[in-house]
# Entry
Amino acid sequence: MSDPTSAPDPIAVLAALGVHGATAAAPATGGFDTAVWCVTLQGRPHALRLFRQGQTTRCARERAAMEIAAANGVPAPSVHVVGAYHDRPTTLGRLFGQTQAAIHAIPAPPALPADWRDAAGPLALHLPFPPLTPRALIHLDYHPLNVLTDGARITGVIDWANVRAGDPRADLARTITILRLDVRSHPDLVPPQVMAVLPLFERGWRHGYTQVAGPSAATDLAPFYAWAGAAMERDLAGKRSPEFFGRVRAWTERWAARAGDDPRAR
# Structure
């Protein structure tokens, strides 16, 4: 994948949008805030406009305005295609989710233990889990540092030490607690540019997962979120700050309450 910080190639931008066959592309003059090219497609002139990162809302607003104007007789340009170019965090997140869904589609071998609930300690005995999906292969340490990529593909999944047979929703909950609690607690270790794109990565992950597993595969997650919080607290005991564990306990209590089992009431 080419460097998104380099000067964009208009032909590559069009290809990323699924548009092929441009015979000419030349920079247009007069555009200071966005990159604009005059391109020839099927013998007809078109304009290609590339907004900067963070201008998604502006792009949608301008498109809506032009469509309303054209519908009322104003000679405004018509929009043929809209998409994203070099949306790497979302794209890699989607691949990350698709790979996790592929793991969950594998039946766990009979010899693999199914004791994943034990990781949360006594809380697991009280959580009102919905009917469980039995014996799927679940990684239970699936996060970006355990997935290898060449920038365009997922090339490997490593660190299978926690693997179990169990409900895929436990694995999803484990991943989200790592992304939202543990990763975000290390601003000194995680570069700011990575921290800034985590929401995009997470959005892509969820989309990629449900693309493969179906939307119903990620429902009834509240007890699993509570389980994952309790499991994280036990797993990282003595390795994080008291402030970190305060956030983890708050997460666990909030999701346990939503699941119908408030640990403060016991």
